[in-house]
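<discrete_fold_record>
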Amino acid sequence: MEKNQTTNKDSILIVGSGPSAADPKAAYLKDVNTKVFRMSWFFLESNLVFGKQVDWFWFNCGEVILFHLLRQVIEGRYYEFNQLHFSPDKPKTITEYTQFYREYFGDDYFQSLYKRQRFNWPTPATIGNLVTDYNRRLGIKSIRKTTMPTAAVMTLVKVADAGFKDIRLAGVDFYMDSTLYGYHPLPKHLAHYRRSDFKVEQINKVRKLLGKPLLKEDYWRPQTTSSRYSIHTVDIDTAIINHVLSSYPDIQLTVFCTDPALAVWQQVKGIKLLAGGDIQDTAPAPDNRFIPLLDTIKLNRTQQRKVVILMWKLRLIDASIKFIRNHCPHLHRFIRPLYRFIRDRTWIGR
């Protein structure tokens, strides 16, 4: 892996989405010289374990409702954001997503935000090759079944390549705990617009008509390393972590995790590992004042209609690709470029 010339003397704390990030003891990893890296839906945490300061925030632009809620968080100053990383961070993609936001929410808010606060730490090409080789060994060829590292592990790659030496991790529990996420659940009127929830809801309508058992709401969330529908596995995450540690031997990696995840982390050599029992009890963290606001946030009728139409378009495209994969496998590899093109065009409502 080619080394990035950037160096940073501050420690950096990467906070993933696992339940250990909700443990007040995880705040032990943060001191006055620690920069904090957050991601995805972190602002749904019930308590401010790591405080309000967010030095870097990485979010995937693929969820309409995430855009909508993030704007409320930023404008209400529930957290103090320094720099934002849009994923995927390519000029063409960013232009499309800001057009997409304008299409569904009527202004250029995220375009101006991107210009003011955007940063980009690219992922080293060797990681993409490692993921590709991993999926090839598993015999995975479908673009809908590709196994990928979790966001926190990919962030570890980025900050290591950016030159950080003292790296700390919380909330990376490999889905080993019965509580998958340490987040407050979205109220039903908002959860309806999450792509995974919408997908389960529509499938269950059909299953109910057919008299079949209904799918659980968390059907597509990673459950185990062998979960049929999981895009994340323990194996790919640990492979990437070990690759980073071997490529950057001068990194000091400190990890706070839940007890069920200890067995996995103990297999990773050369790290400092902490669990709840290693740290003295700490005072409860302050409440997240954004959580009570969730019940009052709504989409207007025009936004509701446009978002639902968008999700149906994506759902039908996914179903078409699945049909081709299952019934015309010899055509599947030729249809993939067209699939990506259609999804991109659909995304921004053209």
